[in-house]
Amino acid sequence: MTLALSGKEVAAKLEQKFADSIIEVNKDSLLVKSESLLELISFLKTSPEFRFDFLNTITAVDYLEYFEVVYHLTSMEHNHSLVIKTRYYGRENPAVPSIVSLYEGANVQEREIYDLMGIRFENHPNMKRLFLWEGFQGHPLRKDYL
Amino acid sequence: MAIANSGLINLGNPQTLPPDWPGGFWWHWVLFTIVIIAVVIVMVMAFIYMARRQIGRMQSRVGPNRTGPFGLIQPIADVLKVLLKEGIEPANVDKPVYWLAPIVALVPVFVIFAVVPFTDGGMLADLNIGILYVVAISSISTVGIFMAGWGSSNKFSLISAMRVVAAVVSYEIPVVLSIAGVLLLVGSLSMNDIVLAQQDTPFILLQPLGFIIFFIAGLAEISRSPFDLLEADSEIVAGFHTEYSGIKFALFYLVEYGEAFLLSCLITTLYLGGWRGPALPEWLWFIVKAVLVWFVMVWLWATLPRVRIDQLMALAWKFLLPLALINLLITALQVLALPEGSLWIMIPINFALTAVLILVWSKLFKLGWGRVEV
Amino acid sequence: MAIKTEPFVLNLGPVHPSTHGVYRMRVTLDGEVVVDIEPVVGYLHRGIEKLAEERTYTGVIPLTDRLDYISSMSNNLAYVLAVEKLAGIKVPERAEYLRVIMAELQRICNHLIAVGSFFNDCGAYFTPFLHMYREREKIIDLFEMVCGQRLTYNYMRIGGVSQDIPEEFLPALEKLLEQIHRSVDEFDLFLKENEILLARSRGVGILTKEKAINCSITGPVLRASGVGWDLRKADPYSVYDRFEFDIPTGSAGDCYDRYRVRIEEMRQSLRIIEQAVKQLPSGPVKAEVPHLVRPPAGDAYAHIESPKGELAVYLVSDNSIAPYRCHIRPTSLLNLSALRDMVIGWKIADLIIIFGSIDICLGEVDR
Prior knowledge:
The complex is a heterotrimer of chains A (about 150), B (about 375) and C (about 375).
Chain A: E1 3-4, H1 7-14, E2 22-25, E3 30-32, H2 37-46, E4 54-63, E5 66-75, E6 80-89, E7 95-97, H3 106-117, E8 120-122
Parallel strand pairs in A: 1-6, 3-6, 7-8
Antiparallel strand pairs in A: 2-3, 4-5, 5-6
Chain B: H1 25-58, H2 74-84, H3 95-112, H4 130-138, H5 140-151, H6 155-186, H7 191-196, H8 203-206, H9 208-221, H10 247-271, H11 282-303, H12 309-337, H13 346-364
Chain C: E1 8-12, E2 24-30, E3 33-40, H1 48-52, H2 61-65, H3 72-87, H4 93-122, H5 127-147, E4 156-157, E5 160-161, H6 169-191, H7 195-201, H8 209-214, H9 220-224, H10 231-234, H11 255-279, E6 298-306, E7 309-317, E8 325-328, H12 331-335, H13 339-343, H14 348-358, H15 362-366
Antiparallel strand pairs in C: 1-2, 2-3, 4-5, 6-7, 7-8
């Protein structure tokens, strides 16, 4: 059975290194600051007790005051999973660091989020629209689109 | 020194139809021109029908059986449909090349039938260079196909045209070498003489390796499965005839099945004993044997996947060509060494050699070269 | 001295006999060798995620049918599992077993189509394809008996399934299992050692283990590369922990291994169905759930092992009758992440075969 790691456990293990990046901890997820996202996920991927080598999915949700990007990670070795969330407050030009350098599977998912939600991912090799055509104006999945 | 026709070059069989049979040269020519065109078109339609029914049965379904009794009118319906369709022409085709391609591909197919013997001497012209004429003219179709591929201004067609040229040129050599094996036994290039020389044993028994090589190489030349990558409709849409519709497409369709009928007739003539057979009239035996060869070709079509282009070339150059050379060598040695009238000794020797060679050689060569470093 | 050649761009356009739907690839070719590919998707984008925000929770189920339209039962299952996780609804036993039976029958259907299409791409002129479709017809007849539909079933509901199976279903299923067992063995016997298939697919399009995990690839493609990761065993949902079955894995990660993994998975699915039919309890088939479900505010992530890979639904609710956000993990789109590296250096014919062996469905790619 895949053990869904609770945010509290993981936060306890992450200790000093990322103590100031973690904003909120609850039962099933971990909310972090977007600046330290890349470092944190890189640490989670490489450290031997976590080894999160598999990225399940990246989702973006539009809560009207902020955009939230949700990462679901799984470790095939230890068979446990984790949810990491990060937020961008405001509606103009939201941007979040890209994790393409860690997981290649993030490539198309981040392009899709840019296409449909408008969130830019910094350092993405090919930040173009995926489903909609190049001249499309607007981002359909936002709550204020239609 | 053993030759199958007992040492004579021009077999003057008294029952052979003379070359000006019904009443002079021109009447013979008119009659046989009509006969050839009618037979080819009717047999092509019959082949289309037989193929569809047979493939249907092999795919656990019934073929066409609604149009007419047992679906016999289906090929006529197909022909009518194709002829009545609009001939859509892309905007920037190379007009002369695009328009001439079907004709250049089609005419050689009909022209070769002039030397195919339907009965004893029943052919338009019993040329004494019969089989050489066949080999020479059959390559002209390829030019037509290449013209179609180039003139269509479509990259898929161009890829297909390149594949066709490469394949046809490569497979000409095993074809010609296996024909040479037959010629060593006959001693004459005339097609009727080749049939007359098979009075004791059909050459398929005397030349099993040659038959296999000719069959496989012939299939590749006319791009039938498993070598139908030249017009592979799961990769390059429809190959060289992608941009053709209407009557021009009907001509290409006729080329494809016409060449299949031609190959069946050639195999019948060269290896199966042509029009020879008891009881039934001779032309009927010819048709029966051609249908049998077509049955096997459709069987292969229905059951085998297709090879890749580099595997196709490897098969021609590394497998069929050496085997054809070895076949020629063995046949030559046997013709020189064996005394008159004892050709039947060749049968078991040749079968054993065929089995050994094919089994051993197929382990020795690598089929294609796989991934290329980019 | 090598001939100077120039690469050209070929557009394997959205309309092509072998792209399994409207998938477009701009392929840069040097002669016949593929040098680069650039996929272009979005030709089937219907905005399912946006539409889901306008409908009630039950009303989203027909939308999920159309995602991977070849295996609708699995899509339904993923979605209703997410809603039940969010709302804390307990599903009755009989419904769980029926769900498992339907999902495994669906897996067999899907793999029949996948293997049939794979052979079609190889060039075997529809013969294996039609034989496998004949078997699929028998399974679809069963589905029609249960829910009246042949392709988009809309069978699962929040809290169970929509209706109970009729009496003819179980005897017909028993008879069918025997027939499918024989057919799968027959197909395997004919196709496994075919020389041309081996020459075309052995060693072609190799996907290494590390790359597969890094590219978020799941399903038979991942298992053929040697990773024994199957959600039915790693993270069992529904009642999968009560059945005994194996997970077939390959070793080389080439097209031939993917084909073998699918054939073996069909056999394992038959095992699961036999056990499920034996253990099938009686009882209600749907929990008492209000017509307009209102889950409490929060989010939930539910994933299943669909025939193509890990299909997951991430559902966010704000205690209203419609989902606030319904995100569907695009299994097929992620399975294509490694396509470029699998294909470069091979020829066009191999590109088609490799693409066919990944087995995608455009409805899932584009949503």
